[in-house]
Amino acid sequence: MFIRKPSALAVAAVAICVVGSASAKVPQAEADRLGKDLTCVGAEKAGNKDGTIPEFSGKWLGTPPGIQYTPNVGQHPVDPYKDEKPLFTITAQNSSQYADKLSDGQKAMFAKYPQTFRIPVYPGHRDFRYPDFVCETAKKNALSAESTDGGMGLKGALIGAVSFPIPKDGNEALWNHALPWRAATERTVRDIANVLPDGTISWGRQENRNLSMVGNPKDIGKPMESNDNAMAYSLAITLLPERDKGNLSISREPVSFVNDKRLAWQYNPGTRRVRQLPEFGFDQPLGGSGGKMTIDSDRLFNGSPERYNWKLLGKREIYVLANAYRIHAKGIKYSDLLKKARQPGLRALRAAACLGARGDAQEGLPPPVRQAHAVPRRGYLARGHERLLRRARPAVAVGLHQLLPRVRPAGLAGGHQFLPRPEFGRLRRLQPVPGARQGSDPQ
Description:
Oligomer: single chain
Radius of gyration: 21 Å
Structural class: mainly beta
Shape: globular
Largest sheet: 7 strands, antiparallel
Low-confidence stretches: 1-21, 392-399, 404-441
Number of helices: 5
Number of domains: 1
Number of strands: 17
Strand order of the largest sheet: 10-9-8-7-6-5-17
């Protein structure tokens, strides 16, 4: 995983219920819009009427001119917009003027912290693009990929890009989040700060090593299920808290869940035994999170979609984080981030457009499941140019924060491109793209 910067404000939500066992491919005429009035992964190229969302330029592939950046060594991303100033700042006093572009979570933060919570809004940018092979693969996928079996399966999709650049339902949006073009190998050590209402912090730490079977540059253009239907292999080692230190889990993730499932094994230092787990995922607690984070909320959502009914929700502009390089700048300390109500300056918000998806937990499941999930509803926003999900809530001061300063990037040829993907109070590390050295927000 690679450090990502919270960035601009934007959002568009789109929603359509999933019906039937398989979703249709888009017609040729619709696919031909990719690279024309749509970017190659399906975003609208044009800006919005009031100019807060700019037209897509795609002028940079990888490291922008004048930026000194060395890939694969864990260097902090360099801010190409470091001299920009906020266009305006939203406060509790003027928030009513921007209510139509604020999420319920942002409004709640203004109500909770009226004196300290502020949202600085910066100019929007759409300057980074994907490599040509991603665009070529995305167009092929638009014509061939299908979501089957109520979102449990995938067929006709190729490695190298999102499967559904023009998603028609919630399951397709979820597949785009699960299978974007990302690093083939990743290694991170991440700290998890559980900030309580009184300001005290409970710390967790986990080391993760991941091997993506759908991220190898040698497999570009091959079917997603080419590697024995394996999507990824992961190893997670809990380092904090002390009571859980040494717990280790290894898992195999399938591409399609129709006739396959996640397999996992766990080593417990107390028993000194390795055991295969009967189930690993859904709302089981994530190691190092003190039970405050579920396994399937890592990377916003992972694993089988079976416990939710997924929908797209309609189009709407709101403010989201994007291109906030400052928050990952060298010299930033945890004490600068973990405050009761975050001060502006580190978070850069800009206007952009996104698709929104919502998952409602299924009802009436037989024992032993009964309740489909401890989280009955999940809301996400997918910025059109990324097709990656982000939580439909702001980063908050009280709650769980995932911090990733100790990043050891994997040695993927061609370097890495860093993308923003903020979560509910957590800072996420993002997808490197071969052929890119440094950047943000490819369209």
